[in-house]
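[recover] target loaded
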């Protein structure tokens, strides 16, 4: 795959909010990656649910191992496309740092609570607040003082920012697309979670191999090739063989689709990528169809299955309950946290506190406040 001219050169970074001297052997995006890996919020991903609650099995993805898989896929694609691997890696490692406990049900419930006050909860905006202010590691400034491009990527990797949408975010170039390195993250995320959720749900016996073959046409082709090559191999091994090829199909499709879109758009530098009316990171048609089929399959067989629906309702109701307890009795929040948050509206203080929790910390706090 030929290198793209649309690579974001680290020398072109708009830099940090608080200027710092350069490092002798790490460039600015490498330093951002390291700051992210050493952040407390990053370590907390270890005890945040991806889809399946830990405890049922030691092999399910957590949000941390999911993040590592996204970083691996995104770096592979960035490298094949000749993009900036350091920027891509930093963005992949930070992409889920703003996730609250209990995966999507936690996110939805916090958003529902915030809407009561005419506000919203958005995990990307929360991630920005974490790296801008909640992480306290430096004497000279709050937050991690990340480069503009990493902060922009946190905000815009999964959706564009429209002009006038949020005036307080106007520094992040509303109306312009983020660089390709940031655009890649959303699709690397999709390739990672679709295949990982298929794997975890197969292990948890949500379906058998025949169902995957029946419902996902592209997977049926892959599986037929596996059967031909390894007739009589145990089902789990045949599934693993198929899964590897499925990841490969999606990642290759991402590289191919992006390369083609960039060529067709004639986007040979970052400015052209930014100005282009649509995102240029995309799956080639076959991979896009596979990804869509996987998503549908997982939705009906896993995400909206009775087993998970029950768990989701339970987590959401616990979050709603604790939210109200803290709102009614702010004295139950740690004193140091209340002092840090002085001047913020009470619902925001409560929301940020709950959003930062791991699943385990949430459960303990919930028990203690009964
Ligand atoms: Mg993710």
């Amino acid at each position: 795959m030929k290198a793209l001219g649309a690579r974001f050169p680290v020398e072109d970074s708009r830099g940090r909010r608080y200027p710092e001297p350069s490092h002798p052997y790490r460039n600015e995006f490498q330093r951002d990656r390291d700051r992210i890996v050493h952040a407390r919020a990053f370590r907390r991903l270890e005890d945040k649910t991806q889809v399946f609650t830990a405890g049922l099995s030691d092999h399910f993805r957590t949000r941390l191992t999911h993040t590592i898989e996204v970083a691996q896929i995104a770096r592979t694609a960035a490298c094949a496309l000749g993009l900036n691997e350091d920027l891509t890696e930093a963005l992949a490692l930070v992409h889920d740092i703003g996730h609250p406990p209990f995966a999507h049900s936690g996110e939805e419930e916090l958003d529902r609570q915030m809407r009561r006050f005419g506000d919203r909860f958005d995990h990307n905006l929360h991630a920005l607040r974490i790296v801008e202010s909640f992480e306290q590691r430096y004497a000279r400034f709050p937050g991690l003082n990340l480069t503009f491009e990493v902060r922009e990527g946190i905000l815009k990797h999964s959706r564009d920012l429209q002009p006038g949408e949020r005036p307080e975010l106007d520094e992040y170039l509303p109306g312009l697309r983020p660089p390709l390195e940031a655009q890649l993250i959303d699709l690397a995320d999709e390739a990672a979670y679709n295949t990982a959720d298929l794997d975890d749900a197969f292990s948890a016996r949500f379906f058998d191999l025949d169902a995957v073959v029946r419902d996902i046409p592209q997977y049926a082709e892959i599986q037929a090739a596996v059967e031909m090559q390894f007739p009589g191999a145990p089902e789990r091994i045949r599934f693993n063989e198929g899964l590897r090829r499925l990841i490969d199909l999606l990642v290759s499709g991402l590289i191919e689709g992006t390369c083609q879109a960039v060529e067709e758009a004639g986007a040979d530098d970052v400015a052209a990528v930014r100005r282009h009316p649509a995102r240029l990171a995309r799956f080639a048609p076959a991979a896009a169809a596979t990804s869509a089929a996987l998503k549908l399959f997982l939705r009906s067989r896993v995400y909206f299955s009775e087993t998970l629906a029950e768990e989701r309702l339970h987590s959401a109701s616990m979050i709603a309950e604790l939210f109200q307890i803290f709102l009614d009795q702010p004295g139950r929040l740690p004193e140091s946290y209340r002092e840090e948050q002085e001047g913020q509206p009470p619902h925001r203080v409560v929301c940020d506190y709950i959003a930062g929790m791991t699943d385990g910390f949430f459960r303990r706090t919930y028990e203690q406040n009964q």
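[recover] notes: The two ends are 58 Å apart (CA to CA).
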